[in-house]
Structure formats: structure tokens, C-alpha cells
């Protein structure tokens, strides 16, 4: 009988102890949960309040970015970008040319290890104009006759391979690769493509500066990389700049994609 009472008392005491432990742990768990909820809420608030990257921060050429915080560079970039908007050009010709030319240009640049952004050079050079420049440059990549011959193109009274997209792109890739061996910067390569490597080297030495965006160059060369970046931006994000959606542009191109490709 005494044994039964002892067992009963033991059970009751055990239950009381467990109830106390449970009662103590509940607020601690609630407190911990509350902390987690607060942290999650705080993290969500931070994410929601994070500012999206500005357009200037997203712009680049061959992965070389604009120097952010430079008001002069930003003003110039915005001005040249605006010049390529649909409001100013009032034509979708550049997008149609891109759809036609890029499938030929891209694999050639890749084969020579040239950044894909150089595919915008022909759009800047000859996308809105055709024929021979006053200085004698011609074709998709606007080669001068001497430079064209140096990189393997036939230019004579009977044939002008500067007008052949595939062959002239191979020549351009060879030239661009050679320029990179000199300048070790794709923005400087683009500038040298525009003005000539000799002139570009002299400017780098004279100014003791090899950052394209910080150099003082003639008007055309000083704006050349900005034009390439602008071309890249309107082709990759046409709607933002007032153009029609890419699918519609490709439909316009229809079956004539090979029309000027030999």
C-alpha cells in the first residue's frame, strides 16, 4: 500500500516538473520565432528598398564599363544614346541590318577571340549609310583600300571584297586582334579602329593616359565608343528607346536575310 502511494507521488511530481519545463520553453521558442520573423522582415525591407542599377551602371563595351560618377562622361553618354533613339532616327533600319548581319558576324568574331560587342562596328560604320566615304573607306567595316589589302581582301577595278560581309568580317577580326596586341584594351582598340593605331599610340604617349573615357580625342573618335555602346543598347533593348519589339523586326526582315551576303 505504501509502495503504491510512493509510485503515485513520483508520477505526480514528474508531471509537475515536465509541465514547468514546457511552460518555460514555450516563451523562449516564441521569442526565438519572433526574432527570426523580425530578421526575415528586415531582410525583405532591405531588398525592397534597394535601388535598381542606373542605366549608366549597366552600359559597357566588351565588358569595359563607363567610369561612374563622372558627370561629363554621363552627359555625353546620354546625349549620344538619345541620338540613336527612334524619336531621332525615325527608322528601324538598324534593327533589320542587325538581324541580317549578326548571324554571319558573330561566329567569325568568336573564332578569332574577339568580344561579340564588335559586331556593332558595321552598324555604326555603314548601318545608316552606304557607298564610299570621302577618304575612300568602303564596305561593311569601312576599310580603306590599303588596309583591306593588308588583311587579305581583293580591292581593284574588277572586284572589291570590302562589299563581301563574310570576307570583310574575317579581315576586320584579324585587324582587331592585332590592335588588341598593341593596346590591351578593347575600348582603345575600338578607338584605334576608327582613327588608326599610329595616331592612337601618339595620343596615349602625349596625354600619358590609357583610359579611353578620360582621354581628349577628336570629336569623331572621342564619341566612337559611345556610339558603339548606344548601338548595343538600342539593339538589345529596342522598346526602351521607342523601337518595335525584336520579333516584329525579324518578321520584317523575312526571307531576305542573305540578300547582301556573298
TrEMBL record:
> Sorted alphabetically, which Gene3D superfamilies does this protein's record hold?
1.10.530.10
* Domain of life, source organism: Bacteria
Q: Which UniProt keywords apply?
A: Signal
CDD domains named in the record: MltD-like
The Transglycosylase SLT domain is annotated at 116-212
SUPFAM superfamilies given in the database record: Lysozyme-like
The signal peptide annotation in the UniProt record is: 1-23
Any matching Pfam family:
SLT
Q: Which family does it belong to?
A: Belongs to the transglycosylase Slt family.
This one is known as: Lytic transglycosylase domain-containing protein
Q: Which organism is it from?
A: Pedobacter panaciterrae
